[in-house]
Amino acid sequence: MKMDVPALQDFLTRVFPQVADDFEVITMTNSLAKIKLKISEKHLRPGGTVSGPSMFGLADVSAYLLILAQVGPKALAVTTNCSIDFMRKPVSECDLIAECRLLKLGKSLAVTDCLLYSEGDVAPVARASLTYSLPPF
Amino acid sequence: MKMDVPALQDFLTRVFPQVADDFEVITMTNSLAKIKLKISEKHLRPGGTVSGPSMFGLADVSAYLLILAQVGPKALAVTTNCSIDFMRKPVSECDLIAECRLLKLGKSLAVTDCLLYSEGDVAPVARASLTYSLPPF
Amino acid sequence: MKMDVPALQDFLTRVFPQVADDFEVITMTNSLAKIKLKISEKHLRPGGTVSGPSMFGLADVSAYLLILAQVGPKALAVTTNCSIDFMRKPVSECDLIAECRLLKLGKSLAVTDCLLYSEGDVAPVARASLTYSLPPF
Amino acid sequence: MKMDVPALQDFLTRVFPQVADDFEVITMTNSLAKIKLKISEKHLRPGGTVSGPSMFGLADVSAYLLILAQVGPKALAVTTNCSIDFMRKPVSECDLIAECRLLKLGKSLAVTDCLLYSEGDVAPVARASLTYSLPPF
Description:
Largest interface: A-B, 25 and 24 residues
Number of strands of chain A: 8
Oligomer: homotetramer
């Protein structure tokens, strides 16, 4: 692993200052990332539910960090595809947890799979698969 | 069509006050919506590029308004699936336009197809297909 | 569980006689199906690789059987969406195994997640998520 | 365009002899392909409907030929992702037509968008987006 939890959290803060405070890296291993989206007013929709773009953003950041942990901070990885299924209404005003697995880390493409949960719940609110393009470096 | 452009814009303002000002309904017909995302600081990432969640959000809102125009403001339509391909870097700090087509409006599911463009550009920056679930009403 | 392995295999034979012999239900529980695609000439492409439609078909049948096991043989479940990532070349002329999990079984939609493997291999050749529509019954 | 309709049809016959006779290239331009799947017994399911794998296969072949027409017959293009929505039941025993557009032709990835129709019908039976990886050559 080329970046550990503090290195990833620090990288987020430097490179994505607008959103870094929203995310907390809970666990990072070679094949699994666990990332929290700390829910605040801006992530909510009427009724206290978490917005679709916020859930997409959590899946995207989780996959990104999982890949960076493997390839290091220099890589200009970009999302090329995301397929996301919204399955259940998130629990009102509850933080979201992404569990993201690395399915493939190729020379030019990486593929990941995420399940999103309302913290403390066992039934996932969404699933997402994301492909990142890894430019030569 | 059950809702025209002013009705849709008004609906957005009442129901999604946090984000309504970001979106402008340019065109709405029975089969095509053209919606603008007015880019501001919060949509950007380092280098002036538009964030992934902002592009997802534009595709999602466009599909939602296209469906609401057909079924009226009472429907609690929810996104069940989105597949999105990010194809090109958006032009720095430029507004984004979604062109969204209605492919199916069934009793319980609606399917749409969106292309996103940097305003004034001809090559799409992203494509997205979205499925909405339409609860009985 | 409303259908066990023999009931599912028998259902396939009666309802899909053209393809039933290609598939073997290895495991079926409330949340996981393990289904084998017995590779023969018709599934192959030049070089001995398994064709894309064959992999899609395996994921589709696996999700279908996993859902039928829960809702019973009367349901006219139909696939509404599939997102599939092809990640590695399958091992030449080797049977394929799908491991398919049930993520949601709602009143009108069911969502599943599949990983496909060349038998005996640990790295998945493809992943797929499928949504089925469950008509009222 | 590096390959015209006869060159593409000939390429299919040489490289994919098992399935070449199923497909007819109707139209090929720089941005649009129109490909027919000639329906026979093997593509059908009970009730005369076209199978999911057959629809997937038509979308996949259409995208492949559209890309080959641009990059020439040497390219080892492989499908990396497909998202497909099944929207309507195909007309019983009727040929299927794919209309496939090229959205991006990059150095390493190509993105396409397909609509599938029962021949003579105006409402699409399915939509699909496919990404191909183009290895360096």
